[in-house]
């Protein structure tokens, strides 16, 4: 709970920093606030507490994901220095990012569906503004409009589903909903099933799962690169943690009613995401379809519901996020120099900057699931959880999708070593160097010692 209070106060501080005249030290204040928040989360470890009339639950699951979100955000702030350069919108951008973290924490720590809705909306409203923050760019404006309209549409599904479930169970508390579903498992209400299905559709949109993924490529490509990096990592982590908690604590007792639907969506997401990524020439768009395919893998943990599935999801979100942050950091640097966001922009990078080329190789191989990097064990744990739950066919489909994914990730790696007309050295600023180094080390450490996170939950 202290973490939530610290982040809320930090967001308000960012909002009023211009009025009180400490805008110049805002970056340091944000990093200090994030450090205090992660410290509060560590101190609360193993303290299973409920707040606000049992509407918010701070247990090890929520604390682990909140800690991951804060650490990822601290790393993200290092690569996004240029995003806060404009004096007229600096305080707004800081406030939007911090308040989106508040929404993300509510999403991963809810025990009442009203808190889940509140967290999703706080996060989403911030993202609508951030996606269109590059006001002079029509692509950014288009991305914000698409994200807003489709996000509002998904919110309607979520609210309608919650309404139907409340009408049947008489409660928004996940504990009461779970008890009702277990009690009426053999005589299940069609209205409750409709509510469950509508909520799944809304959450599938938030995690960009097929067939509710169509917004992701355009929004990822049109948004500023730093915002895309935030959406692809921090936001996706929060969305999957909340989806996992929703289905585990509310709907696990009637899994027979929804597991086939989730199975089909997961398989379609893995295959379509990977196959479509093969044909992309824009690097951000390729990462968007890659993100869709990874959503399919993470859906397997939601489907498995084994004792170790929460740990496998935590490990996967961390492994995926650090590799994605590294890839976006490198893209941000290259595109700022040349204005080219295509895969061709990586041509000859091994000669112009061996450090960036090495980091790119590590990021791509980790996303592809090649040992001994973190991405390999992330997929291993997810696939093992699904196998234990009896979803062998889905695991085979996921392995096929991973093999397809290797093709387009290696295409980027090959591009690094191709000759280029001009291979002038590329200077790397200190912030980007820190991000690239930290993510590369983290990917290697988690690959060599996966037990650091694997047994945490």
Structure overview:
- By secondary structure, this protein is mainly α.
- The chain has one domain.
- The protein has a two-stranded antiparallel sheet with strand order 1-2.
- Helix 5 runs antiparallel to helix 6, helix 13 packs antiparallel against helix 18 and helix 16 runs antiparallel to helix 18.
- The longest helix has 32 residues.
Strand order of the largest sheet: 1-2
What portion of residues is helical?
over 70%
Q: Work out the strand percent.
A: under 5%
Tell me the Rg in angstroms: 21 Å
Count of spatially separate domains: 1
* Low-confidence residue ranges: none
Distance between the termini: 19 Å
What about the largest sheet?
2 strands, antiparallel
Shape: globular
Number of strands: 2
Number of helices: 20
> What order do the helices and strands follow?
HHHEEHHHHHHHHHHHHHHHHH
Mean pLDDT: 89
Structural class: mainly alpha
Give the helix/strand layout.
Layout: H1 2-15, H2 17-20, H3 26-43, E1 49-51, E2 56-58, H4 60-79, H5 90-108, H6 113-131, H7 138-169, H8 174-183, H9 190-206, H10 216-222, H11 225-249, H12 255-278, H13 283-304, H14 309-338, H15 349-352, H16 354-368, H17 374-388, H18 392-416, H19 430-448, H20 451-454
Antiparallel strand pairs: 1-2
Helix pairs in contact: 1-3, 1-5, 3-4, 4-5, 4-11, 4-14, 4-19, 5-6, 5-11, 6-7, 6-11, 7-9, 7-10, 10-11, 10-13, 11-13, 11-14, 12-13, 12-18, 13-14, 13-17, 13-18, 14-16, 14-17, 14-19, 16-18, 16-19, 17-19
